[in-house]
Amino acid sequence: MITIHHLGVSQSDRIVWLMEELNLPYELKWYDRGEDFLAPPEFRALHPAGTAPIITDGDLVMAESTAIVEYISQRHGGGALSVQPDDPDYPHYLFWMQFNNNLQSALFIKLAVQSTGVTPDAGGPMMATTQRREDGIYAALEQRLGESDYLGGPEFSCADIMSMFNLTSLTMLGARAIDDSMPNTKAYVERVSARPAYQKAMSIAGPAASRPAG
To answer: Would you place residue 123 in the very low, low, confident or very high pLDDT band (cuts 50, 70, 90)?
Structure first.
């Protein structure tokens, strides 16, 4: 059975969501963040990367959510939520599986520059390039969701599981809120948020959830 090592308020909630979508058994092991909001030592000791999410599957210890999501879908879900290479939408699937890291990289560069006291307008070429990249990613997102109900094609897939954190929880760190200025994306977030497996996963491990009693 897969064990999800869940760090509170982190991207590991998407792994719980995936397991609920696939109706697979799993064990959830909860780790609380410290007062500094960082992962505790026992979580960081699980894998050299020390980042959330982390799963164990027998002797396998695996980090990096894009890899974990595809691994579970293919090895345990029969590829049910993956788009296969011979599918016309496969290139879209590959692109949007990477959306998570692309958007977060742009956001974290901006936060790092701003932490030095530099305002966005005075950030120079680095800030200008990062802002242009972020704007381009959101423009591509809105365009794609005007063409397709889901990011990886006409059906819900792992690409959607990978992307929702960035459109919801990431706003807590300063990411752009999805509002009426992005109508296709807003409708998408509402559509995906209505999925029973998503709602169950967020109640168990989402940003508003807490460690189970006992």
So the answer is: low
